[in-house]
Give the backbone structure.
Amino acid sequence: MAQYTLEEKDGFTVLGIGTELKSHYTDFAGITKEKADFWQAVSQDGRLDTLKALATNDYIFAVNEAVNNKMMHYAGVMTEKELPEADRVIQFPKGEYLVVKGEGKTSEELSNQLTGIAFGQVLPEAKNFAYVGGPNATVEMGQRDGVVYGEIWIPVVRK
């Protein structure tokens, strides 16, 4: 099984700008393209920089959340501040989280790799914990030696 840890986290808030993902949840290629197009747009039009200016740390969150039966994807930062252009204040609950660490050549590669490991390997094989919904996020934490590094945080419950 892939390397992972279970970590207790305090509740935290992510301010996000989002998009609805229209691809079927099993259409990995479609979802990946929609996310890539979204990130390119928010990076180019300045919305991501506006969010970063409000952040309490250097982390950039790529959040997935089901909202009103829609699959939503957000670019976000950890902050207590507000922004009129933001689409959602995302509350992450206090509790236990599945954490998988990794690195990639780009933010997109990092996110795809961590999502694949967590949802494709760790969660299907897990015997003593499960993901039961709620927001989850890949967290880009920085760059070193030419690679982007970060983690995926998925709230879990003990079985």
